[in-house]
Amino acid sequence: MSESVDNSKTRRAKQRAMMIAVDTTGDASLSELGELLRTAGVATVGEVIQRRSEPDPDRYFGHGKLDEVKEEIKRTGANLVACDDELAPRQERNLEAALEVPVIDRTAVILDIFADHAHSAEGKLQVELAQLEYNLARMRGLWTHLERLGAGIGTRGPGESQIETDRRLARDRIAALRRRLRHVEQNRGVMRSRRQDSSLPQVALAGYTNAGKSTLMNALTGADVSVGNRLFHTLDPTTRAFEYESRRYLLTDTVGFIEKLPHQLVEAFKATLEETVLADLILHVVDGSAGEERIEAEMAAADAVLNEIGAGDKPRIFVLNKIDLLDEEERAEARIAHPEAIQVSAVTGEGLETLRAATEKAFEETMAAVELLVPYSEGSRLHELHEVAGKVDREDGPEGVLVRTRLPLGEMHRFADLVHD
Fold first, then answer.
1. Are residues 305 and 346 in the same domain?
2. Which of 70, 73, 161, 283 has the most neighbouring CB atoms within 10 Å?
3. Same domain, residue pair 241 and 383
């Protein structure tokens, strides 16, 4: 097993990619594509950007620019071309024919990374589904060497029938994967409903991939979630509890976002991303050391995905992570640029107490002060109160325990019969 993994890494390390992009806005950057390729184990040897209003529908680039790319490929020794946009199948085929090297697009790179990082059964199913849906439209031409064997009415060639067979098998597999994912989603729904029945406040970590969400989760909860300095290191959601001021909170870490996140991945990981949708509060984590331009881009990418999955209106706290990498002047500039943000370092622990307090305050605003009288015969309900409210002040009296606390507005109905006049 280890030998095959080593061979795979060796093969990947030998891939040298020329990055290409069409710049329609005047501020195109291929730094993120380069980071994606690095995560996938591919070296980058150069880039070519063409400024035009939109990509060519057939070849992505114009003829003249393709000649320039071909020269760059020869000069740098590139054996792969990576495009920063998702290519239509015909664009991909025409580019490969013109450049005489394999061509991959941004979606293919991300799918490869997801396939490498998926560990749970659900994650593997989600990635396989996304890969099949992506490749289904690209099956045409795989068997063109057979199409010459037959043509015209009554002479259907084996090439055409092979393509149809492949497409049918792919569609059958897609249908089977969707059924299995629905079953997994039902099981997840059972676990989710148990968490909701516990009435514990639910908080989700969301934000750009590699912003340090998993490290932050470990720091807040004492968990041991795997972390790594690479994009999409965490694909499977993990939920852990932490306590602050005698109240427990559930914190969920989810898959990271990225610019131009392929729609089929959003669809495939919808059940996973629903953890964010169903949370009461979102901690929007951003890499504070990335520079203001990058921070703005990461915030926009996260906003786009949150809106797409229906979580755009959720209450959220903006968290600038990795401030241990900033000097005092840079921290001051970040405070001016983002006065609403809480600056933290998941590595050193700086700012975590402030973040916990801000989380408590966010929930306090959705709570109401109550005074309840719990009869001694219903002592179990005191435990319920502690679960829901956390900190309570109690006073033993002749008729029962007089409790003063704050309850979430959505839970008031559960204790309406105990309200003390």
1. yes
2. 283
3. no
pLDDT score of 356: 94
Q: Tell me the torsion sign for CA atoms 133, 258, 204, 280.
A: negative
- Specify the 3-state DSSP secondary structure of 275: helix
Tokens representing 335? Answer: 């405070």
What's the rounded Cα separation, in Å, for the pair 16 and 133? 27
Strand partners of residue 130: none
Distance, in Å, from the CA atom of 393 to the CA atom of 404, rounded to the nearest integer, reads 5
Q: Which residues of the chain have pLDDT under 50?
A: 1-13, 141-157
Q: What's the CATH number where 221 sits?
A: 3.40.50.300
For 78-117, the pLDDT digits (tens) are 999 999 999 999 999 999 999 999 999 998 998 888 888 7
Contacts of 57 (CB under 8 A, 6+ apart): 88, 91
Task: Indicate if 224 and 323 belong to the same structural domain.
Answer: yes
- The position carrying tokens 């934000």 is 207
C-alpha–C-alpha distance, residues 97 and 303, integer Å: 38
406 lies in a domain?
yes
Q: How far apart are CA 82 and CA 264, in angstroms?
A: 19
